[in-house]
Amino acid sequence: MKRKSVTKHRRRTALVGVGALTAGLLLTVPQPAEAANLVKNPGFETAGGDGMPYCWEKSGWGDNDFTFETTSDAHSGSNAMKVSLTRRVDGDRKAMITESADCAPVVTAGRQYDLSLWYKTTTPDANITLFRHDATAGWQYWTDLKTLDMSADWAQATVRTPEVPAGTDQITWGVSVYGTGSATTDDYTMQQVTAPVPPATCTATAQECADGRWEVLPTKNPVRSMHSVVLKNGKVLLIAGSGNDENLFKAGTFTSAVYNPADGTYKVIPTPVDMFCGGHVQLPDGRVLVLSGNKAYPAADGSHGYEGFKDSYVFDPDTETYTRTNDLNDGHWYPSATELGNGDVMTFGGLREDSTGSVTNERFSYAQNQWLPLSQVNQTWSFWGLYPSMVLMQDGRLFYTGSHVFGNGTSGTGSAVYDIGANTVTEIPGLQSKDERDQSASVLLPPAQDQRVLTIGGGNIDSNPDANRLTDIIDLKQPDPAYVAGPKIPQGTVDLGNGPVAETGEQGKMYVSAVLLPDGKVLETGGGLHNRADPVYEASMFDPGTSTFDPVAADPEKRGYHSSAFLLPDGRVMATGDNPGNGTWNHNVSIYTPPYLLKGERPTITSLIDTEWKYGDTQRITVDHPIVKAELIRPAAVTHSSDPNQRFVDLPLSVDGDNVDLNVTSNPDLAPPGWYMLFAVDANGAPSLAKWVHLTGPDALSGGGMAMPMTMSTATSTATSTAASGGSPDPQIHSFADKLSGRVHKAGKKRTAQRLSPTLSGCDRHYGYAGVCVPTVFPSGVRKTAAARCAWLKANDYGRLKVNGQDDPLGLDRNRDGVACGKGDVRARR
Questions:
Q1: Is this structure's pTM higher than 0.85?
Q2: CB distance 785 to 826 below 8 Å
Q3: Cα 513–Cα 517–Cα 522 angle in degrees, nearest 5
Q4: Are 340 and 672 in contact (CB under 8 A)?
Q5: How many CA atoms lie less than 13 Å away from 410 in the CB half-sphere?
Q6: Distance from C-alpha of 399 to C-alpha of 392, rounded to nearest angstrom
Q7: Mind giving me the DSSP string for 303-362?
Q8: Considering only CA atoms, which of 741, 742, 744, 738 is closest in space to residue 90?
Q9: FRET pair for 495, CA 20 to 30 Å: which of 1, 149, 429, 435?
Q10: Distance separating alpha carbons of residues 230 and 130, to the nearest angstrom
Q11: What DSSP character marks residue 704?
Q12: Distance (Å, rounded) from C-alpha 213 to C-alpha 729?
């Protein structure tokens, strides 16, 4: 199914703009913000031009039939505004406060505002939508706040805005109608929230309160885990399989462990196959889908590399056991795994059973609890690489960020939008040094409603340059989005074999971990300068509001290849693993306490009425002191710097003392179904302990296990039937990224695989064993002599290296005794 083209520009089209201005143009002095009600003409009593009241304008987009009417059926006074849709394919219509200096309310960055209106509706598909005026970029979409419950009689809707983003001087808002039916509104109010910010009280040292602190736990991780999944009960599934240890593989010793943060204990779990370097993702019911893994280690003679198998399992957190599903259609060692808005899972890339690259797209049907046959899954027959980072967009498409594992990026620009229904791939420009983003990290920035993605760092194990400091940010709300350069990663220290020294030049890091935090910031931590070597000690907080990094305390442990970092339900961050080229494993576990936990009392969610949530719901909690925001954070499922499902979903508030109503998005593509951590956050950024909530949707949203996801056109037909039956609201989908200009790739010729080198992993298997990675290319500072290379290997603790076979491609066994880097190999020849 192809996405229907639309005629709307990136925010909305003012059909009749009474006093409307072009983006960013202010003609008069803005109104003062001291007014008790910041909305002018809140009851539509003063007439304006072209049939609309003064300071109100017609807005909307898409293919629909609509009417705007000033009606006498008012809540108070003589007039109200009625917006109706009688036919809809896509889009919405809304009466909005006019985008002008005279009409749009003036706001202060960092403050919050309470919005209120009275309404009647005949459709569940109506919500409060905000736009903001950026002093640099002009008018743009901000967020959707609250879905209106259907009501035949006058009802009041109230909601509190998030903190106004930096650079914003005005906002405009109104009610969007995006399903057949009508919404009649009246008596709008907007008031600035005056709640004082309590002073923060430092409960640790001044440096810890500024930078946080790390501790290394006394109990070590019992398994060589490189996959970390936070479960719906707050425990952590740590998957090792063979743990990149060929001896364990040959012995059939495959392990997982469940870690309980509450008491610091581990439970080793029987593991049926070698899940080393498979994929994983939480399903809507909280089970963990684990797909593919390691069928074979590479052969020293180069006859084959790593091999992926077709096996697939689900892990049940309640029984802590694995159960096999049906097989995948192809092998996928290092696959992606992204949940869609209907609970299905898509996977791309990885290595097949014969070590070639898989060009097979796979889809797991949640409704059918099985992998679908290829005949039911669109195929591009393209190779997406290994662990390609595929982020679900708000309209059901997938954004490939350019983050991946091993070597070069994909051909073209290195990032793309994949429309699953249309089966087209459109290149997205702007990603810097696309072939040096190996094991960079990509995250959908908080909140998910902003549709901005950050990509951090990276390197290239084939050419093995110094890893970079690059970051790139893309705003997927734009009509033709492109990456723009972000701020560079702060530099730390790097251990090149003789202890940590300050990074120089443009040295950055690969093997980056990025973690979304409850205060809305992103912690980036860990990393290394070269292929499985030279750990970098650096961590910093990225603030999406200001697009800046703030250095914080660094993890004292090495965290390079096969390391993970992830958020715990108590607001701390856990970091595990490190697997350098010499084959060793770091079993030490680090815990980071962010500064927000060291600044006084944190809020408590004292009651939660319901843990089963639906899309478009309003859910009430009580808290013990004032909060400024609440959000759902999807629990981690991370490996190899990759967790494309990580997301932070804002929950707009309606506040009445200690009672707080939380407004849940109607769009499952913003918050795919499943278990989430609910945090409440106060003005100092201190989060509550998380409460677990289960977000699910009606059958109309789940798609009943259909083979293709809802796109903007298919979602609309669901909206019509849902509204007609008086059911739950349809997702509010915006036509972001609707005018892509990049090169479009349609499905290519059907093929079996992508041929790849057996040295894909950047390791020369002529030396040592499979768990050891002698690099195919040494760092640039190492001279191409046996003495220099052997000195580097010794400094990195490689130990005795047997030569496998007769070949010695790196010249490390000059005396041909079958052992690399012996005395006879490095002694100067006369």
A1: yes
A2: no
A3: 50
A4: yes
A5: 31
A6: 6
A7: S---EE---EEEEETTTTEEEE-PPPSS--BS---EE-TTS-EEE---B-TTSSEE---E
A8: 738
A9: 435
A10: 34
A11: G
A12: 44
**Taken in order 159, 164, 169, 174, is the CA torsion positive or negative?**
negative
Identity of the amino acid at 268: V
Which residue, 771, 791, 772, is CA-closest to 781? 791
Hey, how many other C-beta atoms are within 10 angstroms of the C-beta on 706?
14
Checking if the pLDDT of 314 tops 80, the result is: yes
What one-character-per-residue DSSP string does 715-775 give?
A: HHHHHHHHHHTT-SPPP----TT-S--SPEE------SEE---TTTTSB-TTBS-TT---B
Q: Are 167 and 134 in contact (CB under 8 A)?
A: yes
Task: Report the DSSP pairing between strands 612-614 and 691-696.
Answer: parallel
Whether 613 and 696 have beta carbons less than 8 Å apart is answered as: yes
Q: Which of 564, 727, 531 is nearest to 643 (CA)?
A: 564
Query: Residue 246 gets which letter from DSSP?
Result: H
Single-letter amino acid, residue 552: V
Query: The tokens of 237 are what?
Result: 């599934």
Rounded Cα distance between 408 and 433, Å, is 10
Alpha carbon 377 to its chain centroid, in Å, reads 24
Q: Are 421 and 1 in contact (CB under 8 A)?
A: yes
pLDDT digits (tens, 9 = 90+) for 206-254: 999 999 999 999 999 999 999 999 999 999 999 999 999 999 999 999 9
Distance CA 562, CA 581 (A): 11
- Kindly report the number of other CB atoms within 10 A of residue 725's CB atom: 10
CA dist 102 and 111 (Å) reads: 21
The three-state secondary structure class of 187 is strand
What is the rounded CA–CA span in Å between residue 771 and residue 583? 5
| Count of Cβ atoms closer than 10 Å to residue 765 Cβ | 23
| CA distance linking residue 360 with residue 356, whole number of Å | 12
pLDDT value at 729 more than 90: no
What are the two backbone dihedrals, phi and then psi, of residue 642, each rounded to the nearest 5 degrees? -120, 125
Phi, psi (degrees; rounded to nearest 5) at 575:
-130, 135
pLDDT in tens, 286-306: 999 999 999 999 998 889 999
Q: Helix H segments across 224-292?
A: 246-251
